[in-house]
Design goal:
The protein has 263 residues and is mainly α. It folds into three domains: 125 residues, Four Helix Bundle (Hemerythrin (Met), subunit A); 101 residues, Helix Hairpins; 34 residues, no CATH class. The protein has nine helices and two strands, in the order αααααααααββ.
C-alpha cells in the first residue's frame, strides 16, 4: 500500500508515533555512522575494511538521497522547501557522493557537514528526550554545537592539509587536536597549516572560537542565573517545575499554581 504525500510528510517529520520515531532514529544513527566512517578512513586500515566501509557509506548516501526525494515530493511548497535550512543541509549530505563521480575533488569537503543533519533532531528534542529541564536542553545544544563546529573544521583542515602536510596531519585526531587548540585560542604552535586554504580555515576557526564560545557560554550562564531566581512550583497541568517567586499562574499554560508554604 503506497503512502500519500500527506502521510509521507507526516512520518518523515513525526517524532511521537512508533513509526515516526523508528524512521527518525534510524536516520540519526546513519548520520553518526557515516561521520564515524569519515574518521576511520583517515587511518591506516586494511583495504578490505576500507572497501566495506565504502559500501556502507554508499548505502547510507543512497538512503539519504531517497529521503531527500521523498521530502521534496511530499512538501506542499517545493520551492520553499528547497531553499530551507534543513533542505540545504540534506543536500550537502548527498551532493559530494554524486558529484564525486565526475571527479570534483573539492566537493568532498562538503561531506564533513553531514553531521549537521542532527540539528533537525536536536531542535525537536528528539535525541535528548530524557532531558526534562530547559536549562539541560540548552546545555545539550551548546555541547552539540561546539562538537559539530570542531568536528567540521577538523574534517576540513584534514582534507586540505593531509595531501601537502601528512607529517602534521596524518589522521583525523591530529586535525581534531589542532582545531581544539586553535578555537580555544591556546595556540601551542606545534602543528601549523602550510597551504593557503589551510591558513584561511585557521583564521575562520579563530574567529569562530572568539565569537561562538563566549556567546554560547554566556547564554548558559544567563539561564542559570535566571533559574537561581526561581522557585520550584510544579504546574499541575503541564508539569513545568520552576516559576518566579511571585508567580500565581503557570507561564507556559496559564494554569493557577498551588500556593506555596512560607516557613
Amino acid at each position: 500500500m503506497l503512502l500519500s504525500r500527506q502521510e509521507t510528510e507526516f512520518y518523515l517529520t513525526d517524532l511521537e508515533t512508533p513509526i515516526g520515531k523508528a524512521i527518525n532514529l534510524t536516520l540519526a544513527a546513519m548520520v553518526l555512522i557515516s561521520s564515524g566512517i569519515f574518521v576511520a578512513e583517515t587511518y591506516n586500515i586494511p583495504d578490505s575494511v576500507r572497501f566495506q566501509l565504502h559500501l556502507v557509506d554508499t548505502a547510507i548516501v543512497i538512503i539519504f538521497a531517497v529521503e531527500y526525494s521523498l521530502r521534496l515530493w511530499s512538501a506542499e511548497n517545493k520551492v520553499q522547501y528547497i531553499f530551507s535550512f534543513y533542505s540545504i543541509i540534506d543536500l550537502m549530505a548527498i551532493l559530494p557522493f554524486f558529484l564525486g563521480m565526475v571527479d570534483i575533488s573539492f566537493i568532498r569537503l562538503l561531506r564533513w557537514f553531514r553531521i549537521l543533519r542532527l540539528i533537525r533532531f536536536i531542535d525537536r528534542k528528539f535525541l535528548f528526550a530524557s532531558i526534562s529541564t530547559e536549562d539541560g536542553m540548552i546545555f545539550a545544544r551548546i555541547l552539540f554545537t561546539l562538537f559539530a563546529i570542531v568536528f567540521i573544521y577538523s574534517g576540513l583542515i584534514y582534507q586540505v592539509e593531509h595531501p601537502v602536510n601528512p607529517q602534521n596531519y596524518g589522521t583525523f585526531l591530529d586535525a581534531f587536536y589542532f582545531s581544539v587548540v586553535t578555537m580555544t585560542t591556546v595556540g601551542f604552535g606545534d602543528v601549523i597549516p602550510i597551504s593557503e586554504l589551510g591558513r584561511l580555515l585557521t583564521v575562520l576557526m579563530i574567529f569562530t572560537g572568539i565569537a561562538l564560545i563566549p556567546w554560547q557560554v554566556g547564554d548558559l550562564i544567563k539561564r542559570v542565573v535566571k533559574t537561581a531566581n526561581q522557585v520550584e512550583t510544579v504546574c499541575s497541568n503541564c508539569g513545568l517545575a520552576f516559576h518566579d517567586v511571585d508567580a500565581g499562574f503557570c507561564k507556559r499554560c496559564g494554569t493557577k499554581l498551588p500556593s506555596r508554604r512560607v516557613d
